[in-house]
Amino acid sequence: LKKLSFFLFFISYFCILGQCCFFTCRLYEYHFIAENKSWSEAQRYCREKYTDLAKVFDMTDMSRLRNSTQNQGEAWIGLNNNTGGNRTWHWSLPGVEYIQNDSSWNLNGRQKWEPYPGNCGRKRDKRQIIEGCLCVFFSMYLIKEKKNWTQAQNYCRSNYTDLASGLDQVDGEEMEALFVGSVMSVWIGLFRDSWRWSDGSNFSFRYWDMQLFNDKQSNKTCAMTLLNRSGKWSSDECDKGKPFFCYDEKLILMKENKTWEEALDYCRAFHMSLVSITNPYQQRWVEERAKNASSPFVWLGLRYSCTLDLWFWINDKVVCYEKWSRGGKTEECGRAVGMQSGGQHEWVSQRDNETYNFFCFK
């Protein structure tokens, strides 16, 4: 009993410090290929040798990308503008999916959105203008400084997390409280462009170097990272030869329904194990894959132990990060975690004899 108590204290102590969350397995790896190829040749190479040309989810990914090479030149990434000018709206904050909501687009209504100057979103009241932006970092912050949209995004990413993104933030109670007694026009994290990732994912993260990037240069439709300019991005003609980045997916969605035990046995037999999620970056990456599942939940490698009276990952990682749905955490024998394949992709404890799709880590 004393050993168990010490073990639980050890886990709690290090989770509070956040230390245990650093001992994680990568769900994907970047590879720098020091061969000059056109964008299409680079894409074909990456698809043959790895998964695809590199995609970038957030600033953490950008750091990993830059740290994977000593090269200081230009290199292709998997973003291209070969969509015929078809622009799509995105939220600036990675992992927040844009859902069309026409009732929010209202040029005359108080505290509604408007597209301005055509490809960026802001909240506006037409009687009096106090320009600024809304940043988020756990809470909402109103920055009363005049900046263009890109400057506002850079400011929020440097000092907080990002521009306010998603309906919960942009139309939520916290947002409304910031407007009490004020009439203002503020940038929110909504933008649209015609750029797409090579593997078809809808990651919204962009890291353009606005001094060099011109979205109207119709012949420069492939994106590159400028390693000598903090890794920021620009575009170039796709047939030019450059080195490039590939990414290698370590996460596999198995679209067949199995019980939790059957899923665990399958993953251990053919890959490594069921996937563990120990930080929000991994959660967001897994969420993107969960959207393609054919069952309402997808098994993760998290199970409840009656003996220890705690949740544990089957690879012995401590549960530091959690994303439980409200009322979804049931602590009893024979329970394991299924992630919602839709909605907010929250975790719900399920009886482990239910059958769902599952994630393997290879």
UniProtKB/TrEMBL annotation:
Q: What protein does this entry describe?
A: C-type lectin domain-containing protein
Tree of life domain: Eukaryota
A Pfam family for this UniProt protein?
A: Lectin_C
What CDD domains would the database entry show?
CLECT
PROSITE patterns per UniProt: C_TYPE_LECTIN_2 (PS50041)
Which intervals hold domain C-type lectin? Answer: 30-120, 135-247, 246-361
